[in-house]
Design brief:
By secondary structure, the chain is of the alpha+beta class. It is built from 28 helices and 19 strands. The longest helix has 19 residues. The mean pLDDT is 91.
C-alpha cells in the first residue's frame, strides 16, 4: 500500500527547479501512507511530475521502487494498492509471448506490462484488486488516473490557478494537494451541506472548490492539449446489480452456499499473500468472523486477530470476539481502552481525515488499526458484508414498513410523527424497558427512544426512496443551517442511477454500495489504517464475489427476519451458531454522554454563538437549539452535533 501525488502544468508554466521541491513536499505530506521508500519522476518538457511513497508489502526489494517505467518505455506509473491476481495476469502475458524479462515480482510491473499488451482499460478490467494509479503515456502525452471498482483507495484531483499559472493536481489525500503553491484553499459550502446530511462528503465532491474525488470504477484522462478531464466508467455497481437481478442464481440453497464459500475462500486466499506479517480485525460479528474463519482454515499458522474493547455497556464486542478467536484458535490480541484514551484521539481527527468527516466510529477504527500495526503490516477486515447480504436494520425497516405506510394518508402520518417526537427519547426508553419485560424479542427495544424519533422523522415520506434518504440523513433542513450552502446533487438526490428491475430493498443495498460504502466506511478505514502505516484489505470486495452476491435471490439474504442468511450458513460450517447469534451492535463510542460530560467544554467552545457568527459558515440558531436540547437530555442530537463539531475542528486546523 502506498501514496501517490503529482501534477501536470499548463503549456506555458514556468519550468523552474522549484517543481521538484513542490513534488517532494506533496509526497512528504503523505509519508504515513508509505514510510519505507519514496521516489519521483518528471518530464519538465512535457510538464508532468509523479511522486510516490511506498509501504512495502510485495517484492520488498528495489525492483518494486516507484514511479516505475514499463519495459517498452511508453508508460510511467505511480501505483497505490494491490492486484491480487497479478501472477495469473503474468501467466496470460507469458502465454501470449508478450512477457518482458521480468525485473522483479511486484504487481506494479505486471500492471505496466498489461498496459503495453491490453491497454490501460483492458488491463484494469482484468485486474482483481484495490488500487488507484497515475500513469503517464509518453506516446500520447496524456495522464490517466484510475480507481478500483468499489472505491477502497482514494484519489483527489483538480485544476488550480488560471491561465499560464494553472496546475492539475492529484494525490491520495488532500494534504498532498495543499502543499503545492497553486492550491487555492477555497471551501466548498455545498460540500458542508453534504457532510451535515451524510457525515461525510460523497464523491465526486470534496471540501474544496475545484477539487474532486475520482468515482469508484472510473478512469480519467487529462493533458495539456485536453485540459478538461474526461472521466468514464469501466465497472458499475448499478449495471452489476441490474444484471444480477436479471440473471438470478437458479441452483439450490446448498449449491448457493457452496459457491459462496468457494468464492470467499479464493478471495481470502489471494488477499493473504504478502511478504510481511498479516492479520485481521475481529469484532465477533458475522462478517469479520467469516473472514477470520476462512483465513484460519487456509493457514498453517495461527492467524493474528485484533479487537478493541470498551468498558461502557452497549459499546463492547470484545468478549464476543474473544470467544470466536478461542474457538478458531487464532493468536488473539485485545486491548481495552478507557474513555480518556478514546477521547485523546479527537484532536488528531481533522488531520487524519483531511476533510470534515463525522462517522464517530472513526475513533475505535483508528484505535484498532493502531493496535494491529504494532504486530502486522496488513490486516483483513469484514467490511461490505452488510451491503452485500442485506445486513443493515434499515433494509428490514423498509421492507416491513413502507408497504404499510403507503396505505396510510400522509397527513395522518405527519400527525403521528409529531406525536412521537413530542415525547422525549429518555421517556420512550423507560417505556420500552417496561414493555420488554412482557414481550419477546427484547433486543428490539434497545435505544427505543432514538429509534422511534428517527422513525418519526421519516413517517411523512412520499416514497420508499424518500424514506431511505431520511433514514441515512442526519441534518435535513440544510438551508437553515449552512449559510449559502446550496446542496449539490448526488447519486441519492438529483443524479439517481437507473436501477430498473430492483425492488425497494435491493435499491437501498445498491445505493449503499455506491455511496455509504466508499464515501463513509472505506474512507474511515483507509484513513485510520494508513494514518498508522497499516494496509487493510477487504475480501468481500473482490468484484467476482460482488457480482455473484447480486445474483443470489433475496431469500438467501433476508429470510424469516434474519439477515445474511447464506453468509451465516458459510460461517456456521466453521463457528458454532451460539457464538454468533446475538443482536447487531455498531462499532461506536458513547458520543452522546461524552458531549454532556467530559467533552462539554470543548464542544461549547466550538459551538459558541459568537464563534459561529464570526466564521460565517453556520446559522447559530438551529445548532444552539440542538445543543441545548442535547445537554438537557430532552433529545439525543449526538450525530447532528458531531457533524458540526467535526467541521469546526477541521476548520480550526485548516484556516
Amino acid at each position: 500500500m502506498c501514496g501517490i501525488a503529482g501534477f501536470i502544468t499548463s503549456q506555458n508554466y514556468n519550468l523552474s527547479g522549484e517543481m521538484e521541491q513542490f513534488l517532494a513536499a506533496m509526497s512528504n505530506a503523505i509519508k504515513h501512507r508509505g514510510p519505507d521508500d519514496d521516489g519521483s519522476w518528471s518530464d519538465a518538457e512535457a510538464g508532468v511530475w509523479l511522486g510516490h511513497r511506498r509501504l512495502s508489502i510485495l517484492d520488498l526489494s528495489s525492483t518494486g521502487h516507484q514511479p516505475m517505467r514499463s519495459a517498452s518505455g511508453r508508460y510511467m506509473i505511480a501505483f497505490n494498492g494491490e492486484i491480487y491476481n497479478h501472477l495469473s495476469l503474468r501467466q496470460e502475458i507469458e502465454a501470449a509471448g508478450e512477457a518482458p524479462s521480468w525485473r522483479g515480482h511486484s504487481d506494479t510491473e505486471t500492471l505496466l506490462q498489461g498496459f503495453d499488451f491490453w491497454g490501460i482499460q483492458g488491463t484494469v478490467e482484468r485486474a482483481v484488486g484495490m488500487f488507484t494509479f497515475a500513469v503517464w503515456d509518453r506516446q500520447k502525452v496524456t495522464l490517466t488516473l484510475g480507481r478500483d471498482r468499489l472505491g477502497e483507495k482514494p484519489l483527489y484531483y483538480g485544476w488550480q490557478g488560471v491561465g499560464d499559472s494553472a496546475v492539475f493536481l492529484f494525490g491520495s489525500e488532500l494534504k498532498a494537494l495543499r502543499q503545492h503553491p497553486a492550491f487555492e484553499n477555497n471551501i466548498n459550502r455545498g460540500a458542508i451541506s453534504l457532510q451535515l446530511r451524510h457525515n461525510c462528503i460523497p464523491a465526486p465532491y470534496s471540501i474544496y472548490e475545484g477539487i474532486s474525488k475520482l468515482l469508484p470504477g472510473s478512469l480519467l484522462s487529462v493533458s495539456q492539449q485536453q485540459p478538461e478531464p474526461r472521466v468514464w466508467t469501466y465497472w458499475s455497481v448499478a449495471e452489476v446489480a441490474k444484471s444480477g437481478i436479471a440473471n438470478v442464481f437458479s441452483g439450490s440453497d446448498q449449491q448457493a452456499v457452496d459457491n459462496l464459500e468457494s468464492l470467499l475462500k479464493d478471495s481470502v486466499s489471494k488477499q493473504m499473500v504478502a511478504d510481511v506479517p498479516l492479520g485481521a480485525f475481529l469484532s465477533g460479528g458475522v462478517d469479520s468472523s467469516t473472514i477470520v474463519a476462512l483465513m484460519q482454515a487456509q493457514s498453517l499458522h495461527r492467524v493474528k486477530t485484533f479487537t478493541i474493547g470498551f468498558n461502557e455497556e452497549g459499546y463492547n464486542e470484545a468478549a464476543h470476539a474473544k470467544m470466536v478467536a478461542q474457538h478458531l484458535g487464532t493468536d488473539h490480541t485485545e486491548l481495552y481502552v478507557t474513555a480518556e484514551q478514546a477521547r485523546s484521539v479527537i484532536p488528531f481527527l481533522a488531520n487524519l481525515y483531511d476533510e470534515p468527516f463525522s462517522d464517530s466510529s472513526q475513533i475505535p477504527t483508528f484505535l484498532v488499526s493502531q493496535l494491529a500495526q504494532q504486530h502486522v503490516s496488513v490486516s483483513l477486515s469484514g467490511d461490505a458484508g452488510d451491503e452485500l447480504f442485506c445486513g443493515y436494520n434499515r433494509y428490514q425497516v423498509t421492507a416491513n414498513l413502507w408497504r404499510k405506510l403507503a396505505t396510510v394518508p400522509r397527513p395522518l402520518r405527519k400527525l403521528v410523527s409529531r406525536g412521537l417526537t413530542s415525547v422525549s427519547p429518555p421517556t420512550l426508553d423507560r417505556l420500552a424497558t417496561t414493555l420488554s419485560r412482557f414481550m419477546p424479542g427484547s433486543a428490539l427495544f434497545a435505544n427505543a427512544g432514538g429509534k422511534l424519533h428517527k422513525g418519526a422523522e421519516v413517517l411523512s415520506s412520499q416514497s420508499a426512496h424518500d424514506l431511505y434518504l431520511g433514514l441515512v440523513s442526519h441534518w435535513t433542513d440544510l438551508d437553515s443551517v449552512v449559510i449559502r450552502g446550496q446542496e449539490p446533487p448526488t447519486l441519492l438526490t438529483g443524479n439517481l442511477p437507473n436501477l430498473s428491475g430492483l425492488d425497494d430493498v435491493q435499491r437501498m443495498m445498491a445505493f449503499d454500495m455506491m455511496t455509504y460504502l466508499p464515501d463513509d466506511i472505506l474512507t474511515k478505514v483507509d484513513r485510520a489504517a494508513m494514518g498508522v502505516s497499516l494496509e487493510t484489505r477487504v475480501p468481500f470486495l473482490d468484484h467476482r464475489l460482488v457480482e455473484f452476491a447480486w445474483k443470489l435471490p433475496q431469500s438467501l439474504k433476508l429470510r424469516d427476519g434474519k439477515s445474511k442468511w447464506a453468509l451465516r450458513q458459510v460461517l456456521y460450517r466453521h463457528v458454532p451458531k451460539a457464538l454468533i447469534e446475538r443482536p447487531k451492535m455498531g462499532f461506536g463510542v458513547p458520543i452522546d454522554s461524552w458531549l454532556r460530560g467530559p467533552l462539554r467544554d470543548w464542544a461549547e467552545d466550538l459551538l459558541s454563538e459568537a464563534r459561529l457568527k464570526q466564521e460565517g459558515f453556520f446559522n447559530s440558531g438551529p445548532i444552539r437549539q440542538k445543543w441545548d436540547e442535547h445537554l438537557s437530555g430532552r433529545r439525543n442530537w449526538q450525530h447532528q452535533l458531531w457533524d458540526v463539531l467535526m467541521f469546526q475542528g477541521w476548520l480550526e486546523k485548516n484556516k
